[in-house]
Amino acid sequence: MEGVGWIMTIILGGLAGWVAEKIMRAEHGLLTNIILGILGAVVLNWILRALNVIPPGGWIAQSIIAIIGACILIFAWRAIRGRA
């Protein structure tokens, strides 16, 4: 996550993963939520940069990016597993 420290990254990642879990109606544990939130932020930031869109900084914008990215990861996992 851009512009936040490691501890805040873990906290925001956990919250973003939990929100994505509720949006996508998935059941994960705390560690999976943290990983999904952090990886979701990394993936969506990478996608935005590849499309020449500068991702906004700050914890609110990065939280939204992490939630959207985590939803994308949950959707992709379901598509691969055949439960989409």
TrEMBL record:
Transmembrane region(s): 6-23, 30-48, 60-80
GO cellular component, one term: plasma membrane
Keyword terms of this UniProt record: Cell membrane, Membrane, Transmembrane, Transmembrane helix
UniProt key word Cell membrane: yes
Coiled-coil boundaries: none
Topology in the lipid bilayer: Multi-pass membrane protein
Xref: InterPro entries: Transgly_assoc (IPR007341)
Localization: Cell membrane
Major location category of this protein: membrane
Similarity comment: Belongs to the UPF0410 family.
Protein name: GlsB/YeaQ/YmgE family stress response membrane protein
